[in-house]
Design brief:
By secondary structure, the chain is α/β, with parallel strands linked by helices. The protein has a single domain (2-268), classed as 3-Layer(aba) Sandwich (Rossmann fold). It contains six helices and twelve strands. The protein has helices at residues 2-18, 37-49, 104-112, 159-164, 226-249, 254-268, and strands at 25-31, 53-58, 84-87, 93-94, 97-98, 116-119, 146-148, 155-157, 183-185, 192-198, 204-211, 214-219. Strand 10 and strand 11 form a beta hairpin. It starts with a helix and ends with a helix.
Length: 269
């Protein structure tokens, strides 16, 4: 099954490269918690196994808050180099600390222009300089929501989630094995496409939010240790494959679009 995942992911990314849409430097993994290092390596390995490059950056320089001495400011990242950004568990902030300061406007513009974001769970207990929970790297000001301090729960996939297929392809995800963490709740704006909910009634397990030409894709998975990460791995691989498809469908130029239709048809055959 893992070979099938890599093959499909490679084919989709190959279409992007052949059609001149993205360069080989396609993926960026963002770390904000040392507990998520193994997840970062998994995401990086999945992208590299498909034949492409992937950068990993650490945006938490506080060694007393599970950070790294060589951590950098998120404001120094050139997001324009990437087609995909993956926020590992707790990457934007945790335990009262916020790590996306100074990068908000550039990041949102990048998403608006077609960037794809995948996000894991992160803490409820940090705010940006304007007092916004989550931070304005995410359009929380336009699409209100709240992060709740929650623990694990069973989940229920919505019809939208079933239609999207991220829980079934290319891997069949064992939803009961996933471990959940703090999550989005109090979502009322229909722009949020709810893909899964928590059975404990405490809000959303998964959603996607279209923003301009790009997407924010979220699941509140917890990957802080080997057991949790192993349970989440099939879903992580599915999310990466789905993100690659979105990049194909998001191509804007006529020439690129025509090229993609041809190549995608070859893959489906």
């Amino acid at each position: 099954m893992r070979k099938i995942v890599f093959c499909l992911f490679a084919q989709i990314l190959g279409m992007l490269l052949i059609c001149g849409i993205v360069n080989a430097q396609t993926g960026l993994v963002i770390l904000g918690d040392t507990y998520a290092e193994a997840e970062g390596e998994l995401v990086k390995a999945t992208i590299i196994a498909a034949g492409y490059k992937c950068d990993v950056v650490k945006i938490n320089a506080d060694v007393n808050n599970r950070g790294w001495a060589d951590g950098i400011s998120a404001s120094k990242i050139d997001f324009a180099k990437y087609a995909l950004v993956y926020f590992t568990w707790n990457a934007p902030g945790h335990d009262g600390a916020y790590f996306m300061k100074g990068a908000e406007a550039n990041f949102r513009k990048w998403v608006e222009n077609g960037g794809i974001v995948i996000m894991d769970a992160f803490d409820d207990n940090f705010k940006d300089d304007q007092g916004n929970q989550v931070g304005l790297w995410f359009p929380i000001d336009k699409y209100p929501a709240k992060i709740l301090n929650t623990a694990d729960s069973d989940v229920e996939v919505t019809q939208a989630g079933k239609n999207l297929g991220i829980f079934d392809a290319p891997n069949k995800v064992d939803l009961n094995a996933l471990v959940l963490d703090d999550n989005f709740a109090e979502i009322k704006d229909p722009a949020y496409e709810i893909l899964g909910t928590r059975k404990d009634g405490n809000g959303v397990f998964a959603f996607q939010l279209k923003y301009g030409k790009g997407y924010y894709i979220y699941t509140c998975i917890d990957t802080r240790d080997a057991t949790r990460l192993a349970s989440a791995k099939p879903l992580i691989e599915n999310l990466l494959t789905y993100a690659a498809k979105l990049l194909v469908l998001g191509a804007s130029s006529v020439d690129s679009h025509n090229c993609i239709i041809t190549k995608w048809g070859e893959i489906k055959r």
